[in-house]
Amino acid sequence: MNEINVNGMAEPPVEETVDVELASPGRRMAAYLWNTVLTVLAYLPLLGAIIWPMSEYGFRAQGLEDMETLMATDWSMPWLLAGALVILVYTVWQLWWMSRDGQSIGKKIMGIRVVRTDGRNPGFWGTVLMREMVYNLLVVVVSTAAGYLAVLFAGSGMETADSIANIISIVFMLVCVVMLFNRSKDRRTIQDYLANTVVVRLPKR
């Protein structure tokens, strides 16, 4: 309840200020690794539903003799749907936390979060759209364009183009890692500059 001053007017609510510190490179990289591991785990049920029926043990369990018979049966369909559902739930869960709290599951585990440079929550626009989608689109466009330029002007083959694209993707990642150690720039990476954000460590409660 707001306090009332002597003139009978409601006092404006006082905004809570919390002292925070920049998230360390170690915590940010650990959060990335957590997200990577969790993403792989989320995809395992679907991959298993695709690969297992075609394995020798899968054929025996289903009483099948060849691939043609396998393709004619819907024995694995429930497992495929279950695997797809796991991915959907995991994705929605990640997007919801990132939009609401500025945290992926990995960032929640490591006690860090994304905030705008003015301290506000970047929401879906900043945390998901700009930091994730736009950044990854930028990497794909630049790396793919470099690969095709190598094909057009250097006469390289598609394998070389793919290699160049992969190298540039790795360069983007390494540049972001190096930027994590630049405290004078608040450890902001390319994603942070795109979304006007900074990653901070949450205080212990």
From TrEMBL:
The keyword Calcium does not apply. The keyword Plastid does not apply. Coiled coil: none annotated. Keywords: Cell membrane, Membrane, Transmembrane, Transmembrane helix. Residues 22-196 form the RDD domain. Pfam families: RDD (PF06271). InterPro entries: Pra-immunoreactive (IPR051791), RDD (IPR010432). Its main location: membrane. It comes from the Bacteria. The chain crosses the membrane at residues 32-55, 75-98, 134-157, 163-181. It is a multi-pass membrane protein. This is RDD family protein.
